[in-house]
Amino acid sequence: MRPQSEALGVLHPVGGGDPIPLLKNEIVVGRRPSCDIRLDYENISGKHCVLRLINGVWNVRDLGSTNGTTVNGSRIATEQSVMPDEELGIAGHIFTIAYDPAGPEAFLGSHKELDDEMVQARERHSLMDLAGMDTDNTNVKPKRPKRAPTVIERLSADEAEFDDAVPQHFKAPPKPAKKPPSDDDFLKLIEEDVKKPS
What is the DSSP secondary structure assignment for residue 72, as one 8-state letter? Predict the structure, then answer.
């Protein structure tokens, strides 16, 4: 939906105002006369934000402005895409961008452009890495238990026929039945507590 033959999109002020054609792939928005789009409001910084068309999708990046740039009411800290149904806030002045975004493949490839660090971070989420077996780092040893378990549970009744095959030192002794605490036990605990030197 390109309103003009050479326009790549149109910036529409929400609530009324003149539409602003977007004629270049990269447009600086701010209060200075040298900006591609000049918004002469006191709360807009000299160079407020930059709009970039990447693979058919408009993106916005704040240029360290005082009053910030938002997409759908959320202040942005990194470059973010702006779809036609989303609201772009430039220091509280709300706009929409009318344009035809590229197909899903191009959008997924350009949505919030990934830098090299993010691509590397994604590669580290392989199953080997999650299992603690990072193949890139040879210094990291897999974690193993420090000692063997001290209690080995007795075999179940279903496995009783194989009980003779298990050596005696692996068999746990039968657990004694716990008797419920009596009043005497409670009184002994209190007496011990009183006798302890403070």
Answer: T
Start-to-end CA span in the chain (Å): 84
Q: Cβ contacts of residue 94 below 8 Å, gap of 6+?
A: 13, 14, 15, 87, 88
User: What is the pLDDT averaged over residues 91-112?
Assistant: 72
Give, in order, the Cα–Cα distances in Å from 171 to each of 91, 152, 154, 161, 178. 73, 7, 6, 14, 20
Task: Provide the strand spans (E) within the chain.
Answer: 9-13, 20-22, 26-30, 37-38, 49-54, 57-62, 69-71, 74-75, 80-81, 88-90, 93-98
- pLDDT mean over 21-50: 94
Task: Report yes or no: 47 and 67 within 8 Å, Cβ to Cβ.
Answer: no
Report the DSSP beta bridge partners of residue 74: 71
The CA distances from residue 65 to 7, 12, 46, in Å, are 27, 21, 8
Q: Name beta bridge partners: 37.
A: 29
pTM (2 d.p.): 0.50
Nearest to 57 by CA among 37, 80, 73: 80
**What is the chain's percent helix, strand, coil content, to nearest 5?**
20, 20, 55
